[in-house]
Structure formats: C-alpha cells, structure tokens
C-alpha cells in the first residue's frame, strides 16, 4: 500500500464525481473530530484553529454533519484540487485575510508577484475555520474589501 501526502490526493486531473457518505457513520468525522488531543479538543481541528477560539464541539459537529449529510465534502476540496500550480499572474483584484493559526501562511511580497493585491488584512485571532472562529471580524473585512470596489450608482 502506498501512502501519499494529503496534497497529492487533490492533484490536477480529470474531474470525478465526489464520493458519497463514507460507509461507516463515524468515519465521516474520525480524523477531524473524534481523535482527541491533549487539550481535549479534536486533534486535527486543534492544530488548525486559534486556541482562544470559542468554537465548541457542538458547532464543529454541526459543521461536519452538514458536509456529510449533504454529500458535499468532495466538492469542498475542489479549491485545493483546482488551485493552479503554475506561475501565471492573476489580474483580478484580490483581498487577502491572514489568520495567525491558519494551516498556510501568506507572505505579501510573494503574493504580490502573482496577484493584484488591493486589500490585505492580518488578523490577531483566527485560523483555518475563520468564519466559525471570528465571524464578525471576517464579515466586516469582506465588506470593506467589496465596499471599496463598489461601482458608482
């Protein structure tokens, strides 16, 4: 059996229909929710969120359940799969929200080489699940980005 890193599972290739719910009910959330780390938070989730985050187990289970019950887990991974690996510049105005506990960290000088960065915000709190962790701050930042680009009436 060959063990591949997670990123290789999302490599570019022909699009296939996403799998439905996994065969066992508990396997839908085992790797993200059920394995507990030393902080009593789910192990992988704990690595991807700000430790000060108010997200409780019920909210996390609700979020994962929505993906599982609607069969949309595969489509949610499309961004990782379809992200271009080349160096072709993107001319569309881009807003970037940087969270200290995200799984990847953005470096502005590198991002500016390929993207037309018009809005860059570095948050003091938040992680990979920013919409759950700091929803008001994220929503306000998104509004600021689009308000500055609104067409005159």
Automatic annotation (TrEMBL):
Residues 1-40 are annotated as: Disordered. Keywords: Hydrolase. Residues 7-19 have a biased composition (Basic residues). Belongs to the peptidase S33 family. PANTHER family: EPOXIDE HYDROLASE, EPOXIDE HYDROLASE 1-RELATED. This is Epoxide hydrolase.
